[in-house]
Structure formats: structure tokens, C-alpha cells
Amino acid sequence: MKKVIVVTTGGSIAFKRNTATGALVPVDGEDAIAQLSNSGIEVEFNEFSSLPGSHFTPMQGLELARQVDSLLHNDAVSGVVVTHGTDTLEETAYLLDLTVHHEKPVVVTGATRPATMPGYDGLHNLASAIRVAAAAETRETGVLVAFAGQIFAASDVQKVSAHSVDAFTAPGSGPLGWIVADRIWMRHRPAQRMFIPCAHLEERVDLITPGQGSDDRMIRHAIADRVAGIVIEAFGSGRLPPWWLPAIQEATAQRIMVAIAPCTGSGALHDEYGYVGSYHDLERLGVLFAHYLNGRKARIKLMLALGAVRRPEDVRVWFP
Questions:
Q1: What is the pLDDT of residue 163?
Q2: Domains and their CATH numbers in the chain
Q3: What are the beta bridge partners of residue 5?
Q4: Using an 8 Å Cβ cutoff, are 85 and 51 in contact?
Q5: Distance between the two ends of the chain, CA-based, in angstroms?
Q6: What confidence score (pLDDT) does residue 11 get?
Q7: CA distances in angstroms from 258 to 51, 54, 92, 233, listed in the order given
Q8: 3 state DSSP class of 302
Q9: Partner residues linked to 229 by β-bridges
Q10: Which of 141, 139, 176 is nearest to 2 (CA)?
Q11: Is the CA virtual torsion 93, 100, 204, 50 positive or negative?
């Protein structure tokens, strides 16, 4: 029988203690777990935390990665599921993808509706994630997110709806596969994966999202605060107002790592425009480019990279 460990961190996908056994089980979910066991999957629950997604931190994510990695090294374990609040689920999933280096599946899931609300989606997502984590088809695919019957790569997935049960998608790439009943259908595998070996991460990384006509106060405040890194969600395929360039130049001169991510959350950063503030000016200033990552994930990546190495030329390895 295959064995899947479910590591719970909190969020709307609620759990409770079974009064008879003391085991941690989903709310009203004993029957569902019994069905999974009957299908050849043994399920065990471990509690990591009981936090809403908005309270979870990257430091806790790195600690979670260590726990997941330890569980995967148990020969009896086929895969690991992590349940998480959806507010920051994609950030934790991407952090795990960058720091857990194992061929066994790791699957992150959650719920957009609490267990007390009609249409609670937690049990369906959990059962799906457990099946994905036990499937041979999902080995060596990195960290996955299973939600509303779809399977996404952690590097691509984004939350796009506050309340809909199909709150997650992968702009530009789509799902890797689907869960239909007890079958796992994989359409394709992630094109590339990256592993950042680090014992700690750099917490002093700011995320800045300018709007039309925004001044450069936020980046200058970050410089004054001596942050280690700044991620800026740029317009289009890598453009910023021209009056931002002096502040960016000052930041790089002070060895603050500045990374540019697309404000669209997906797509490569590059253009052929020649006006001031376009891609060629940012490239000339020596910034990093976080292609195909939204700002939140680019921040996670920069935090981990700065935790692994300190020299700017070494950090660039993680931002090709």
C-alpha cells in the first residue's frame, strides 16, 4: 500500500482531532480518508502549524521545506501533501519547489471556502492532492499544486480569484494535468526546474509595484532602510518611468540586488524600445530579470538566493 503524509499548516482547509483516536482528520472527512485507504493509499497527518495563509512567513516556509525533505527520505513514504491557506499558497509552493530536491511528489493544496460554508471544496482538493502525491506519473515533476481537479507546476501557478473554487490557474502555460475520479492525467511536465541549496534566507527583500505616474519614494525608502534586495513589478515586458532610474542606479551602486518581474505575472522580460526607462536602460543598470515570475515569487527566489550566496555575480546564477 502506498503511503502519503499530509502536512497541515492551517487555512480554510480545516482539520479537527478525532475524539476516539486523537488523530488529525479533515472536518467531516473520516469517510473520505477511509475511501482513500480502501483505494490502496495509506494517509497519515502531521501538523506543522495552524495559521491562515496571510500569517505564514518565508522563514516558516523554509522550516516546512526541511520537514518535507525529511519525510521524503523515508522509504515507506510515496509522497507528501501540504495543506495551506490560499492567500500565500503559491509563494510557499514555489519556495518548496526551489528548496526540496527529491524525485517523490510534493503536492500543495487548500480551500477557498471554509468548512462551515456551503460548497466547501477542501475535501475534494485534499483527496485529489493525495492521489496526485501517490501517483507514479507525478514523480520527478517538482512541487505541484492540486486545485479544483487541475494540477499545476509551483513555478507557474497563480491565485486569480478571491472566492471561486477554481481560484488558481497558470497564465501562459496552463495546467500540467487533471485529476478525474481516481485517475491522474498528465499532459506535460515542467520545462525546467531550479534548486537553490540554502540553510537560511534573507528576509530584508522588499516588493514594489508601481502604478501609472508613481514616484520613486518607495524604492528610496528601501535604500535608506538598507534592505538586501528589491523586487519591482515593471510595466509590460520590462519598463519603468524614467524618473525611477536614478534610484535604481543608487541601489545597485550600494550593492542592493534589484530584480525586475513582469507586472502581468507571466512572460519574458525583453523589448526593442529605445525610449528612456525601457528594458535596455534596466539592463544597462545591471538589474536581475525574473522571467515568467510574478513579483511575489521573484521575491521568494531572491530571498533564497541571497541566503545561499552574497556576491552579486553569484546571485545572478539564479536569474539567468
A1: 85
A2: 2-186 (3.40.50.1170), 205-318 (3.40.50.40)
A3: 44, 80
A4: yes
A5: 42
A6: 82
A7: 31, 25, 22, 11
A8: helix
A9: 205, 257
A10: 139
A11: positive
Q: Which residues pair with 26 in a beta bridge?
A: 15
Res. 14 pLDDT band, cuts 50 70 90: low
Place of cell 525529511: 70
The arithmetic mean of pLDDT across residues 249-271, rounded, is: 92
pLDDT value of residue 181? 83
205's grid cell: 527583500
The amino acid present at 130, given as its one-letter code, is I
Q: Which residues are CB-neighbours of 1 under 8 A, at least 6 positions away?
A: 37, 40, 41, 42
Percent of the chain with pLDDT over 70: 93
**Beta bridge partner(s), residue 145:** 108, 152
Q: Is 21 buried (19+), middle (13-18) or exposed (0-12) by CB count in 10 A?
A: exposed
- The CA-CA-CA angle for residues 102, 9, 294, to 5°, reads 70
* Amino acid residing at 80: V
- For 130-172, what is each residue's pLDDT tens digit? 999 999 999 999 999 999 999 999 999 999 998 889 999 998 8
**Helical pair 122-134 and 30-38, crossing angle rounded to 10 deg:** 20
Is residue 310 scored above 60 in pLDDT? yes
**Cα–Cα nearest to 84, from 7, 4, 163:** 7
* Residue of 114, 109, 84, 83 lying closest to 12 (CA atoms): 114
Q: What is the DSSP letter of 239?
A: B
> For residue 195, what is the enclosing H or E element?
none
Considering the chain, what is the average pLDDT of its residues? 91
Stretch 114-125: mean pLDDT, rounded?
80
